Structure formats: C-alpha cells, structure tokens
Amino acid sequence: MNSFSAKIQIIGVNPYVLLPAKVLNDLFKQAGKEKGPIQVKGKLNENKFTQTLVKFSGKWRLYLNTPMRKAAAIDVGDIAKVEIEFDPKPRIIPMHSKLGEAFNKNKKAKAAFKKLAPYRQKEIIRYISSMKTEESVERNIKKSIDHLLGKARFVGRD
Asked: pTM (2 decimals)?
C-alpha cells in the first residue's frame, strides 16, 4: 500500500487530491494499465474508502466525495493523509429486475443498451438502482428506454 499526504483541492464542485508520480506509477503497474478509470481502495485519514482514480484535464485525480471527507473530518484546503492501492475486486452493480424486464419487452432498447460503452451501461444501471420508490423506478425506466430509442436525453443528466 502506498502512503502520501496532499492538500485537498477543488475543480468545479469536486474536491480531489493529486497523487505523487511514484504512487501513480505503482498503481499503473498494479492495475496493468495507464488509461481509463482505475479502481482503488485505501484509507483517508485512517477511514477506509473505495473509489475510482480518473484522469481529468490532463491530471490523475482521486476525487473525495462528501461521505469520504466527512468520515475523515477534512475538507478543501486541508491536508489529507492517504493510503492507496489498486482494487482488483470487480465492482458489479446488479441490474434492477424491472429494468431487465423492460429490456425483455423492448428488444430495440436492449440492443441499443448492449452497444453502449460499459461505463454508460453502468451509469444507467446505477441510476435506476438509486431510486427510492417503485414509482421512481418505473418512471425512470421508461425515460431510460426512451433515451435508448433516441426519443429523450439520458435521465440523471438534466
């Protein structure tokens, strides 16, 4: 596990830390890649986290979401103590059963879904899975199907 300390910065509304080159290179070796999102796990001020390391605007960033920062009692401008390593564990979000049923009823939408990049598929699955009520699930599945059929923008982005 790699350890470092870094000042929490912000880009837009997203707090993050930059990783030292040595740590970044070690994560690349562990992950076996230097492109695309890299799953990581570790500790932020001794509090466990799982996150995804991403490259944005030319820099690899570890974004620190609100639950991570609250658990570590730190915020933008503070120095964060980070322990980090590659997380090889697959991060699979199961598809909501009603979304699967909708795809079985609408083969065109299912085919369009299968043609999406994996991150876009995951985005739709995660969005539907985050709904709190059955009414929300059903309403947003309909919106998702309409999006896949080219009739609407993707839900969750408006």
From this structure: 0.67
